[in-house]
Amino acid sequence: MNGKISLLLLFLVFLTSTPGVCPLSFQEVNAKAGEMAVLQCPSYRGYSDGDAEVFWTSHTVDEMKLFNMSISAEQRQMGVLVHGRILVILRASVNHQGNYSCSFRNSSRRSWISLEVYKAQSRDSEQMNQISKECYTEEYCNLYCPEKNVRFNTLNITRIGITWHKEGGSSPKDGYFPSVKKEDSGNYTCTRSYLYDGQIYNMTSTVKLDVQPSKITEKAVIISPKNKQVFEVDLGSRVVIDCKAVMMSDTDDLFWLSGSSFVDADTSLSVFYNDTGFNSREEIHMTSLIFRKVSEDDLSKNYTCKLQSDYQTSFVTITLKQKEITEKAVITSPENKQVFEVDLGSTVLVDCKAVMMSDTDDLFWLSGDSFVNADTSLPVFYNDTRVNSTEEINMTTSLIFRKVSEDNLSKKYTCKLQSDYQTNFVTITLKQKAASSSYFEALWIVGFVLMVMVLTAVIYAKFKVDITLFLRQILGCHRTIPDGKSYNACLMYYKSSTDPGLNEDDRKRLESEMKHRFGYSLCLYSPDVVPDKGEAVLDCIRQSQTVVLVPCSEDSGSGVDLLNSIQASLKKLQTHVVLIKTETAGVLSTSSSSEALKLCKAADCVTWKGKSSMLPSSAFWKLLRYYLPAPQRAPRALT
Length: 639
What we know:
Layout: H1 2-15, E1 22-32, E2 37-40, E3 54-58, E4 64-66, H2 73-78, E5 80-83, E6 86-89, E7 98-104, E8 109-118, H3 123-128, E9 130-136, E10 141-142, E11 158-166, E12 176-177, E13 186-196, E14 199-212, E15 221-224, E16 229-233, E17 239-246, E18 253-258, E19 261-262, E20 271-279, E21 284-291, H4 296-299, E22 303-308, E23 313-322, E24 330-333, E25 338-342, E26 348-356, E27 362-367, E28 370-371, E29 380-388, E30 393-401, H5 406-409, E31 412-418, E32 423-432, H6 437-475, E33 487-495, H7 504-517, E34 522-525, H8 534-542, E35 544-552, H9 558-573, E36 576-582, H10 594-602, E37 604-608, H11 619-627
Parallel strand pairs: 1-8, 9-14, 16-23, 25-32, 33-34, 33-35, 35-36, 36-37
Antiparallel strand pairs: 2-6, 3-4, 3-7, 5-6, 7-8, 10-12, 11-13, 13-14, 15-17, 17-21, 18-19, 18-22, 20-21, 22-23, 24-26, 26-30, 27-28, 27-31, 29-30, 31-32
Helix pairs in contact: 6-11, 8-9
């Protein structure tokens, strides 16, 4: 826990080094996750609640200015209320954890508050708001539930009440024992409830009650610091020494002496005191001796904390001693003569980090022999961050190039550490980054992929018929005909007046090859079908996936009439049509069947080239099989 506090103090003192803002004070606030947290900006001489506006800033994730927004929708959504010196977080979470600062209008002073949020069931959560209360048997005992001294009514927050709960037992009403007993010892949790905007919010604290046998006599005593204790300090630093005492009466007095003179409470003096008053819960009184800036004269004096009571007088005397310097300020990064590879036109940030021994040490950047400015509108500027601890100061100053130019590549930049004891520096340069080989590799891969895609498209366009038939063969695309169809194709012959068509032997060979070699199921109709049986033809078409129209050379007029009668039905049924035409005819002429000519415009056409078309591997069969659906059974191997 002490390590966490040291880190917080280190960070807070860094924050107070922001240029143009004088630090006023810092404090720590703890809260449980899911409960209400209250941050209060300290007031100081010359400023009070009513005559100055307070400005809050959240430094948790992104720096955010917070004004009096207690009734804004945005502020309600954030769960943060601000009014003057009060900042309330309705339900604290890890997102609220971090540092907050506040300052008064027309004042360069700023106060810092560090908020740490613990999980509700964590060990730290149980201890952070725990106070101890000692009572004596057979006497009354009143447990106090701590509360921030805040005027919640200014934020429209209403106090509802307090509930008590004892760990593993019953709880007293209102935390009051008329006559406390030994078995009442234990941990008590008090919950203060508040109402805001129809929602209830809580703040809990733990009171550890220790019931002792009835006290007889006790004496007022100073419990810290120890007598003749020596405090090691840095010259020029701010030092606070707390004197704590257990007092038996409101008339007891605790105060500081410098030599034989009283220390004054005037905060404008170089040495003054701050009295925190009497804490009735713990019976501890504390007064703080504050050195604004430790001087050589302060090291030569004795300071006495004196407790004056009705029964005795006690005191402790302390002295200050200059802290021995055992380490030197040093720049930890970057390395001297380090070269940074950058892209022209890019934004670049180079951090210079140093461990410093004093607030008077300074870390800054030079461009050549000229100081780099903090003006963020310039093409090259710097930004400082500082974290202070009781032992050392970790500081980072960032050199920022808004857009790297050719001129930046020709200059040297120096990070210089100036302290009271030594001066050291590192010099860096910028170099244009070489084109990355991975970039060219990426371009080559993209080009290769595009080339493969184009080549694949060309190959498929040229060999799509062979590829489709090959895939049907290896994937086994022969299966039951879908959609309730009974046939792969309806084979119909029609009479054309100019097209020689297929003779009887060619027609029989065509039918045989389609059924027996290639596995198609066929519904066959010839030109001899008379028109009054056209309904039967339509029924065959309905049960077939495709209609194949074959020109016939025999003299049969009924075929033309049949084609004419089913023309409208083919369009209505949206049946796929494949039209076979002969090579001698080329493209159907105007003297051919007008019905066949109309169908050819919307159908897939295949050209019969006589005897050469009878070969199973001919272009005729490949194209006809391509236009037809997959057969019911696999075709025999082609020879």
